[in-house]
Amino acid sequence: MNSLFHHLKTFTQGGVHPEEQKLSAHAPTAILPLPKMVSIPISQHIGKPAVPVVERGDTVKVGQVIAKIEGYVSANIHASVSGKVGKIDDVIDSSGYKRTAINIRVKGDDWLKTIDRSDDLIKDCALEPEEIITKIQEAGIVGQGGAAFPAHVKLKVPDGKKVDYLIVNGVECEPYLTADHRLMLEKPEEILVGASILMKALQVEKAIIGIEANKADAIDILREKSVGYKGISIEELEVKYPQGGEKQLIKALLNREVPPGSLPADVGAVVHNVGTIFSVYQAIQKQKPLIERVVTVTGKAVANPSNFWVRIGTPVNTLIDAAGGLPENTGKIISGGPMMGKALNNSQVPIAKATSGILLIPKQEAERGKVYSCLRCGKCVEACPMGLEPFQMMLLAKKGELEEAERQNIMDCIECGSCSFECPSNRPILDYMRLGKTLIKKEKQAKKADV
Amino acid sequence: MNTKLLTVAPSPHVHQAQSVQKIMFGVIIAMLPVLLVSVYVFGISALYVSMVAVASCIIFEYAIQKYLLKQVPDVSDGSGIITGLLLAFNVPSNLPWYIVVIGSLVAIGIGKMSFGGLGGNPFNPALVGRVFMLISFPVQMTSWPIANNGFWNIDGTTGATILGLMKEGTQNGQSVQVLMKDSPSYTDMLLGFQAGSIGEISAIAILLGLVYMLYKKIITWHTPISMLTAVAFFGGLLWMFDPRSFPDPVFHLLSGGVMLGAVFMATDYVTSPVTYKGQLLFGAGIGLITILIRCFGSYPEGVSFAILIMNAFVPLIDKHIKPHRFGANSSPSYTKSTGK
Question: Is A407 within 8 Å of chain B by CB?
Answer without folding.
Answer: no
